[in-house]
UniProtKB/TrEMBL annotation, chain A:
GO BP annotation list: maturation of SSU-rRNA
Name under which the protein is recorded: Nucleolar protein 14 homolog-like Protein
Top-level taxon of the source organism: Eukaryota
Keyword Chloroplast: no
Pfam families, sorted: Nop14 (PF04147)
GN (gene name): AUGUSTUS-3.0.2_12735
Automatic annotation (TrEMBL), chain B:
Protein name as annotated: Nucleolar complex protein 4 homolog B-like Protein
InterPro entries assigned to the protein according to its UniProt record, in alphabetical order: CCAAT-binding_factor, Noc4
Residue stretches making up the CCAAT-binding factor domain: 289-437
GO BP term (any one): ribosome biogenesis
Homology family: Belongs to the CBF/MAK21 family.
Originating species: Tribolium castaneum
Top-level taxon: Eukaryota
One Gene Ontology term, aspect cellular component: small-subunit processome
Amino acid sequence: MKPRKKPEKNAPNPFEIHINKQKMTVLGQKNKNDRGLPGVSRAKALKKRKETLLQEYKLQNKSNKFTDRRIGERSRDLTSEDKLMARFTALRKKAHKKSIFNLADDEVLTHKGQTLAEIEKFDDPRSDNEDSDEDKSGKLDSAFVGDAHFGGGVLRKTGKEGAKTHRELIDELIAESKKRKAEKQRTKEATLELTEKLDTEWKDLLPLVSRAQKGEPDKGAVDDYDKVMRELRFEARGTVSDRLKSEDEVAQEEKQRLEELEEKRRERMRGFEPKTQKHRSADDLDDDVYEADPEYMLSYNTEGEANVEIGAEINGKTVGGEESDEEEECEEEEEEQSDDDLADLKAETSDESDEETEAKATKTDVVAKTDETSADLPFTFALPDSYEALQQLLDDKSSRQQATILERMVKCNHPSLAEKNKNGLGTLFVYLLQYLNDCASEKSAARLFEIYKSLAPHIFDLAQLNKENTHSSMLEVIKEKHDEFKKRPKDFPGLELLVFFKLVSLLFTTSDFRHQVVTPCFVFIEQILNKCKIKSGKDIAYGIFLVTLVLEYTSLSKRVLPTAINYLGGILHMAIPKCGVKLIKVNPPFKPTTSSLVLVEKSCEDCDFKMEASDLERDEINDSFKIRAIYTVLRLVQDFDNNLVSLPSNVEIFNDIRAYLELLPTRNYPKKVADLFESVSQQLKNRKVERKLEYIVLAAKRPKALRLYEPKIVEVFDGKKRKIQSREKAERDKLLHKLKKETKGALREIRRDKAFLGRVKIHQRIQSDNERKEKVKRIYAEASIQQSELNSLDRKKKRK
Amino acid sequence: MSNQEKPVKISKQLRLKAHEFLSSRKNSEHLLSIVRHFESGADLSSCLLTLELIFTNLLKDRDMYIEVVPLKPIEKTETNQYKEWLRNLYENCFSKILESFENDSNKIQIQGLSTAMNIISYEGKFPLENRGNLECYVPLNRLKPVLMKLLSNKHNNVHLINKYTEYLLYSDILFFSWKLLPSLTAKTNPNETYIMNYLRLLEKLELRKPDEQQTLCGNETGDFFTFDESVPLRALNKVWHCVMLWEHSPQTHKQLLIVLLERALPHLEKPLFLTDFLMDSLDVGGPVSLLALQGIFTMIQVHNLNYPNIFAKLYSMFEPEIFHTKYKARLFYLSDLFLSSTHLPENLVAAFAKRLARLALIAPSEDVVIICMFIGNLILRHPGLKCLLNNPTEGTASSDPYIMEERDPVKSNAINSSLWELKSLQQHSIPSVATAARFINSPLPTIEWDLSRILDETGDDIFDKEVKKHGKLIALAFDKSHDQILHYWNI
């Protein structure tokens, strides 16, 4: 009976359907709103309003209301007895509610009719899976199904036809399935029994089997011939090798390698600058592009822009094919678009480099000298197993001996000699960092830098051998130091940090636009220079060291760190004698009143005026320190200015320093310092005079490429056009659209609510009017009856 | 070990004594001994707890309540005498408890306050006198000394006032605190400590009734306490007149402005009277003038104040020192509000952009990022400023036409300049800053940058972000050539 109702519900009265006209039909487009049921939806809305808005309206201006919470009070189809029963059961239920905290009287839990405790004995090894597998076959067989279900029996004529009623069929079905299940169960039990039996028997047999195996005789002795043959077969064959290169060729290759590396470094330094595009004529066939980038198909979007940067430089093709995968991934990133520098690794740390650099010269020099001094050292060194071992080895040795030890250690354990050496050298690198760190706290600054200088070339070589390790361990060290600094941001950190910063500039290319180790160092240095309070001479020296490092970091890339220049200005400000009430402004962290670097007496000292390592330790400020500090700062100012001359705001950057230089008296300083002073201030003044500022003009928009007559192919076409815009903008547009839609919807709802309430009110009004009319009518009627009675009485009286 | 055990023992002993006293009237000498122990000044916190226990229990059992029948002298029975004695002791002890507010240890101060408030709560529930028809009774003669102690002119009571805030959640305490406040306000010049305490308390006092209707002194029967919202308003206005007349040190001046902005300003009857005060504060400089600026902004916005020179004032606040104060974020937020109007003259806004750009040349990197976005937003709002990025004449200049030293932004000739500073900042060492300054190279977006996201960023955040950036590229130096540091250092 019930199923008949369903189709009725799905198919509404055709007179109720309203079909929305479509202006044009699009094939394959599905429209949700092509037909609607205005009557039904209106009735629905009305019902909803009656339930919500009308109720609210009725309760308007009323402070409270009654709600009847008695069970069954509001449902009409319960008799009073039923209600009583329901309430009674609810009461009982409440009384029987079990406490969840009472763990003692638990119910016994069962699974498939067995208690859990019973199941947990696990004496039946069969898993549930097997069961379910067998269930599959426990179903009715297909013949029966074909016969009994889907009206199968109707078509076939058998002798028994008509004899079976539906009832019988069902009964038969049940009986059949029960029988099958029982059979299954029986066979299963039988197999289980048999398996167990087999197991026990096998156990008896087991000792016999093992004895038989032991008694087997050895294989016959290997024939000499076979042995020789095998040996010959696996012997390494000579491979075809390149001919030995002449010295010229080696030098040539080295030069080429360095040039390539330099080119790549420059690319990284430029960072975000757009790549210069090669000119392409309109009928360029793009042959070379396809050759360069087989992974990309050139295509154009609706704006006519290509997805591949045409004319992008083909990176590292000449270096070697093995890194080509990485290259392609890298190219997608705009900022770090250079390929992996694996070529660095290949470089043997040989001394016959084409360009004899200064550092290398000194290194060979040192090695030559050590030959005499460290004759008593052993020639081979094993890699230290622990940090303490290394410390023991290096302690109490002169720096030359230390360098020799390290050199021999690296040579003896070169990664080409054994597989594990690479990791061992990595740990050695970490230990050396730790050693430098400890030296800073134990030894004097001069000794620290001496140790650093002797170890540096070897650390450099070590770093080249295992560069992932170098990278991660340096980054870890910097992070750790920064965490320490965060705890006391007003104090200058220890000297070891200076050594590490110096090491960073030695090991990494500091000119990169963004470098994973160097960039955090920049941030760190900036924070130190910005936040730390300058209290003594060593703080001044520390800052000057950092500024020098900044210069070294940026000498190639010509970048600017304003804080460093601000620091130089602050030091110069400290040397200006402050007289009178007029304050000379200076930027924090410097204070406008400090004048600890003012030189009071005339000094004629003459030397090279370089800063000393011991300055980093001394608290008090003497005249020699004052002169040296000012001299170094002036030289730094000069070099920074030369470095940053290309910046359009160069003059503004050095504004403060120019002002301070004018206020700084030079008469007390030695001649060399005074001369430098003159030249620096003249240089800064000239910059202002010679300045040529070009007004900023936005680059003219490139003409759009013509649209190609190529069909635009979309993978899944859904009949919608999609705008190409940024994610934020798309989100904003979507939200705006939603807002508009919601506002409209809300307004419509409010309008309808108002109409509904109006209808309710007018209805009430009409009703009350009708009531009043009725009442008046009734009163009139009563009055007229009264009058008539009165009249009739009067008439009767008159008659009398 | 013994030191550890001692206080535990003593507090146990005291509690034992208290229980014995409460169980029988005969043990009254126990109470006396506890009081003596308390007066001796040892083990204050356990003494306080014990006294609290005793008096709350006495109040609950009405042991100190003397029945007063009108027009009849009190009978001189033994019980009444005992009660009289207890009451005297109670008065004494309460004042002693209040003295613990001046103790050196914060812990004992706070303990004292909570004891006092607990006793007040019990006395409110079980009053000592016939309370008549009052719906809710708060013993004002107890609450007033508490407030007086809080507003001490000797001690800095930050902790106590913070603790007292917990009690201000009860609507009755809040209400009566407001009611008592005018009488406790000093009429003449008080000292600085008093002012600080006073302003701190004032900062904590809510003007509206708390959301949950809770009373400290009401009993559980559910007497409704009616919170008349006009009383606090009247009290505030009355008090504020006095507060304004006091002489303020720079510290209290700042606190006063904070209280004014966060609490008082929306509720004052005639806020325009404050204009002079705010103007004077504006000239003080530093954080005070920033706060005053915020006040003036509210006045302009809500109370229709007309102040012609406001932009020059704002302009003069952008000094290099601002990057090293705590109020930097507030300044950026406020100036963003001020400059959000699109009806400002272009040369004025250009002056702001140019000045900020100049400051960016010396600012710490986290601020440079903010400044770059700020300037970008200014240009987005005022399309006329695009000439700073795209000069129509395309020539060269020998110097920047903008005059940094000019105090009037309109006369600074910024509109004829270009934002060379941002061009220079593209060469900043820190890549995130360099990228932030890059926006001038490409056409501007249509949506403004969201400043609030980055206003609170610090250098540490930049460091962490840079450390977390993982690239596959590992770039090592390939020559050991540059050792520039040796030119300057003998190492």
